[in-house]
Write a structure and sequence with these properties.
It is built from 32 helices and 17 strands. The protein has 708 residues and is an alpha/beta fold.
């Protein structure tokens, strides 16, 4: 069987994701490989597919016991024989697995790193016919990484024991230092280093001011009804508080942190995986054990420690490639809590490092630049497009204004109060807030007292922070940081140059409405989802082990009615077809027969692509007022893909003029949507007894949605 066949037959994927093929070919050539791909990028396939193509067994080192079981469950679901060895098993169970491995019947064996320290483990490995070593989460080997695990150091011996067996190391952490450490410690031999783009085109990034955040979080979760959500909080107490608040409001939520007993944590994790708990409220430290593909929303309730961490944590959203949302509730005041811990770090270098990382998080929160661009630049990756179309700053660019006059006032206040006070006092001076302390300090007698009294405190604080980001002011690194003026600031005071700052805004609701249009039949989707849970419960596995959401969505979009068309659906491999095909087909058939719906031919070119460039090209042609068919031809895309682009474009560029797409029928179809009081396509399609194509309906629907 060639690799393409394995890809479809076992894993059910039609095509490789970027980078996978090159990596897999390198592994099959028996060469070492280092793979750096973002979370959700599809690293597992890079060793799982070769494991099937190679003759012997592949040993996978993986740090998390809970994830191991999950991986093995998933593989077994594909019809691949896999097993694991870790400390959760009794020695009896372990020796059974070992015997089984020796019999040559296992293709993939997952092993916890500490196994390598156990007596006789080398001996055991020596008794196997090993084709490949895969070291997952390889950054754990490096002290420079954020998750150093001493046990990983043992893996040095892989090369000395098995000099001829290729090694593939995989991680989502890309810093150069960590990379070097991995190569050095595993003794990788001139490895192919594959670094994927870290862009996650399906993730929407937003920053919200941290005000009334609990209520906002609740409404965000309500918007993501029945969808998995992870919330990161600062402290254990915060997680408990928030989980309780959500529970009181009818949401199934659970806290998850290091202070909880191991068993309870495992239970929460399991409930989350099985969709029995919708929301997990975690401390950052304990996020790593959660590896669910269909998390639709990740919220940071508090400032992250570093952008690297933030990127990893938000990376847990949308691993299945479907749209997901990442929201940071931002308040510069949150830095205080972090500073408390930073101050207590013993090592000066560490202190500086942590402090700088914190500063970068603050800059991210305040910035008006594309969030995607900022995050990627942190990983040394240049993001070229001017507008990513999927972050708050691109969707709703912030205005800037000429702020030199205001900046001069703020800087003088810093100087006149002796550069000894924090943001709050400074703003109180500028706002002219009387208090005993003010009088005591004599600051109410200063000329700067009250010179900004027309502004709001919130607004002014934001300005001060922007001046810090612009490096005209700086903040001491202590628990109660004070503001002082930099050399650049002094220069500015003297020379009165022009200065642009962003207009601080308290964001309104608008962005909550940014959602991506569903392109599938929701009614059928719900039915398939119910069937999936029924099977999952009966088999005692998480739902996504049966089929991922993307697979169900495709079924509900193309209405496959025969085995061969079902097999074309992404995520349907041979094993899945054999095990579940009949039941899902029956469900689809009963639905489509009742409604008299035809199968929709699966166009090979249909790939949902959220990157800006392709949409930009379509937009260009729409502004030229070209007919849909011409756009499709020019772009070499299926008609329904072009319509998807237009739907997406309308959600981000409301001003885009599509009136010219109206036909003689459009008005009639619009009326039907309104009469039937629905946005679903099927009822309207039936209403006209199939007289109109889905594309015509979808275009008409856009006018209903935009209210024109
Ligand atoms: P990572 O380990 O890099 O975080 P995973 O290996 O867990 O990511 O893969 C994330 C998701 O992507 C999984 O649901 C997996 O099935 C899916 N996936 C991987 N490769 C492909 C592919 N070639 N086509 C479609 N889906 C894929
Ligand atoms: Mg992984
Ligand atoms: Zn952007």
């Amino acid at each position: 069987m060639n690799t393409q066949q394995i890809l479809k037959q076992y894993f059910g994927h039609r095509e490789y994701r970027p980078g996978q093929e090159a990596v897999i070919n390198n592994v099959l050539d028996k060469k070492d490989t280092l793979v750096i791909m973002p979370t959700g990028g599809g690293k597992s396939l890079c060793y799982q597919l070769p494991a099937l193509a190679l003759p012997g067994i592949t040993i996978v080192v993986s740090p998390l016991i809970s994830l191991m079981k999950d991986q093995v469950d998933i593989l077994r679901g594909y019809g691949v024989s896999a097993a694991y060895l870790n400390s959760s098993q009794s020695s009896q169970e372990r020796s059974e697995v070992e015997d089984y491995a020796r019999s040559g019947k296992i293709k993939l064996l997952y092993v916890a790193p500490e196994r390598f320290a156990a007596d006789g483990f080398v001996h055991f490995l020596n008794s196997l016919n090993i084709s490949l070593f895969a070291v997952d989460e390889a950054h754990c080997i490096s002290e420079w990484g954020h998750e150093f695990r001493p046990e990983y150091r043992q893996l040095k011996i892989l090369r000395s024991w098995f000099p001829t067996i290729p090694i593939i190391a995989l991680t989502a952490t890309a810093t150069a230092k960590v990379r070097e450490d991995i190569v050095k410690n595993l003794h990788l031999n001139f490895p192919l280093v594959h670094i994927s783009s870290f862009n996650r085109p399906n993730l929407l990034y937003r920053v919200e001011p941290k005000k009334k955040s609990k209520e906002k979080i609740l409404s965000l979760i309500q918007k993501h009804k029945d969808e998995s959500v992870i919330i990161y909080s600062f402290s254990r107490n915060d997680t408990e508080d928030l989980a309780l608040f959500l529970k009181h409001n009818g949401i199934t939520a659970a806290a998850y942190h290091g202070g909880m007993e191991h068993e309870r944590r495992t239970r929460v994790q399991e409930q989350f995986r099985r969709d029995e708990v919708q929301v997990i409220v975690a401390t950052i430290a304990f996020g790593m054990g959660i590896d669910k593909p269909d998390v639709r929303l990740v919220i940071h309730e508090s400032l992250p420690k570093s952008l690297e961490g933030y990127f990893q944590e938000t990376g847990r959203a949308g691993r299945d490639g479907l749209p997901a949302e990442c929201v940071l509730f931002f308040s510069a005041g949150d830095a205080q809590g972090h500073r408390y811990f930073i101050d207590r770090l013993a090592n000066e270098g560490e202190r500086q490092n942590a402090s700088q990382k914190l500063q970068e998080c603050l800059a991210y929160g305040h910035s008006g630049v594309c969030r995607r661009k900022l995050l990627l630049s942190y990983f040394g990756e240049a993001y070229e497009p001017n507008n990513c179309e999927l972050c708050d700053n691109c969707l709703e660019p912030r205005e800037s204004f000429e702020a030199s006059e205001l900046a001069l006032k703020v800087l003088s206040a810093v100087v006149k109060t002796g550069q000894r006070f924090g943001v709050t006092h400074l703003c109180n001076v500028l706002l002219g807030k009387q208090s005993d302390r003010m009088e005591e300090l004599g600051h109410d007698k200063l000329t700067v007292f009250g010179i900004c009294k027309d502004l709001k405190a919130e607004y002014l604080k934001n300005i001060v922070q922007q001046l810090v980001t612009k490096k005209l002011l700086a903040q001491t690194e202590s628990e109660y940081p004070t503001i002082y003026i930099t050399t650049e600031g002094v220069h500015f005071l003297k020379n009165h140059t022009l200065l642009q700052l962003l207009v601080p805004i308290t964001r309104k609701k608008k962005q909550d409405e940014v959602t991506i249009q569903n392109e599938y039949d929701e009614e059928l989707f719900e039915k398939l989802r119910a069937l999936r849970s029924e099977i999952a419960i009966a088999r005692n596995v998480p739902a996504y082990v049966i089929f991922g959401n993307k697979t169900l969505e495709e079924m509900a979009r193309f209405y496959p009615q025969t085995e061969s068309s079902l097999r074309k659906i992404s995520g349907v491999g041979d094993m899945k077809l054999k095990e579940f095909g009949a039941r899902f087909l029956a469900e689809i058939l009963s639905y489509t027969q009742e409604k008299n719906l035809p199968e929709i031919p699966y166009a090979e070119t249909v790939t949902v692509n959220y990157t800006g460039a392709t949409h930009d090209q379509t937009r260009e042609l729409v502004t030229q007022k070209l007919p849909l068919e011409t756009i499709a031809k020019t772009r070499g895309l299926a008609l329904n893909t072009v319509v998807s682009h237009i739907e997406k474009l309308k959600s981000t560029h409301a001003e885009l003029d599509i009136d010219y797409l109206k036909t003689d029928h459009t008005q009639e179809i619009i009326e039907a949507f309104k009469t039937l009081n629905t946005l679903q396509l099927t009822p309207v399609k039936n209403f006209f007894s199939d007289a109109y194509t889905y594309e015509e309906l979808r275009i008409a629907r856009l006018f209903v949605i935009t209210g024109k």
